[in-house]
Amino acid sequence: MTGDGIRLAFGARYGARPEGVWAAPGRVNLIGEHTDYNGGLVLPLALPCRTRVAVRRRTDGVLRLSSAQVAGPPVELRLDELRPGAVHGWAGYPAGVLQALRAAGHPVGGLDLHVDSDVPLGAGLSSSAALECATALALNDLHGLGLGATELALLAQRAENEFVGVPCGAMDQLASACCQEGHALLIDTRDLTLRQLPLDLAGAGMHLLVLDTRTKHDLGDGAYAALRAGCERAAALLGLPALRDLHPDALAPALAALPGELRPLVRHVVTENARVEQAATLLDTGSYAALGPLLTAGHASLRDDYRVSWPQADLAVSAALSAGAHGARMTGGGFGGSVLVLVDAGAAPAVATAVGAAFRRAGYELPRVVAARPSTGACRLG
Ligand code: GAF
Fold first, then answer.
1. Measured between alpha carbons, how far is residue 107 from residues 98, 145, 149, 190, 295 in Å?
2. Atom 9 (ligand 1): residue with closest C-alpha?
3. Angstrom distance (rounded) from CA 98 to CA 87
4. Residue 267 near residue 304, CB atoms below 8 Å
5. I want to staple 330 with a disulfide (CB 3.0 to 4.6 A). Which of 144, 313, 324, 335 is the partner?
6. What is the CA(35)–ligand 1 centre distance, in A?
7. What secondary structure does DSSP assign to 239-270, as a single string?
8. Is the pTM for the entire model greater than 0.80?
9. d(Cα 351, Cα 309) in Å, to the nearest integer?
10. Which of 262, 227, 210, 201 is closest to 335 using CA atoms?
């Protein structure tokens, strides 16, 4: 999928040249899951897979959206008809970004947009955030809005919250918009401070294996919203603005004061924030192997407390650990998607083979290996 390829595809669809091509990556979250809507810490990195958009402005208030991944004619919408929940499927993401910019007072109009992406869909690797961020950057550049990467990411999150209707946190959009090549991005979702942490696994003889377990995940089905609501209820019962404000030393009495069904959620969020802090320290010192047990502890917490793991993820984690991985965990929102495995580079093929063999024995579709080196965030390609 070259820049030239998407330009040609745009021309074939719309009979004109695009004004430019923009790209934004998928992400994998190293650690810090379900903390971003609790004011907490996350530590994602951008993947080399990217979503590209070729765009040309229109002056007639019409929005035409097409995708190389979706057969059929472009989706055609009128700007004055854009309403939350009115656009279904993939087109809701770019339409939602346009609407979020307009709602924020930015003078953006209609456009023709063609998408092409190699970010795996439904794999928990933020294909939707990649599409949102590529669109947001395109509109920012074409209309000279002058917004920074963080502002664009927050507008993309707003599109997903308000237009698509998924109450996600800001991690995925911030990762797709702000990550830098060779780095993981430590995000404090409370004050939006970002710290680029060098991540040279190859230099340390290590490898991050990302395995798409081919179990589709969907954040829009209500389970994610219910978890977020549970966390917010717990914080309110504790008299805190957010669960980020619960210090680990105060965890035990806080749990005792909460209804039983909220306790595991709170325990996960508080311990996960602490794991992100520890992971960031390990990255600062290049102590990569020591990350392994933290990742595995994070998985246990997501499986046993937050209950968002799924059978293929649990099997992949246990098979990878048995085959000698330093650590492994599910990544992303859960209920399907991908697993990451930290492994010595030389052992990566054997670990991947061991996971595949375990899947075959269990009768699961074989996992797909996704390339995972820390890559660049959203950018203009030309
Ligand atoms: C999904 C959401 F979109 C993120 O905001 C985050 O909550 C994540 O699940 C869980 O950490 O990717």
1. 10, 8, 18, 29, 44
2. 333
3. 12
4. no
5. 313
6. 8
7. T-SSGGGS-GGGHHHHHHHS-GGGHHHHHHHH
8. yes
9. 20
10. 227
In contact, 264 and 307? CB cutoff 8 Å: yes
Which residue has the CA at smallest separation from atom 3 of ligand 1? 168
Q: Which of 172, 218, 249, 305 is catalytic?
A: 172
Cα atoms found within 13 Å of the Cα of residue 91, Cβ hemisphere only: 23
CATH topology of domain 202-372: Alpha-Beta Plaits (3.30.70)
Model pLDDT for residues 129-178, shown as the tens digit of each residue: 999 999 999 999 999 999 999 999 999 999 999 999 999 999 999 999 99
Known catalytic residue at 314: no
Pick the CATH number of 3-199+376-381 from 3.40.50.1820, 3.30.360.10, 1.10.10.60, 3.30.230.10: 3.30.230.10
CB of 172 within 6 A of ligand 1: the answer is yes
Nearest-atom index, ligand 1, CA of 33 = 11
Taking CA atoms, 157 is separated from 39, 95, 137, 173, in Å, by 15, 13, 13, 6
ipTM: 0.99
Tell me phi and psi for residue 51, to 5 degrees: -105, 130
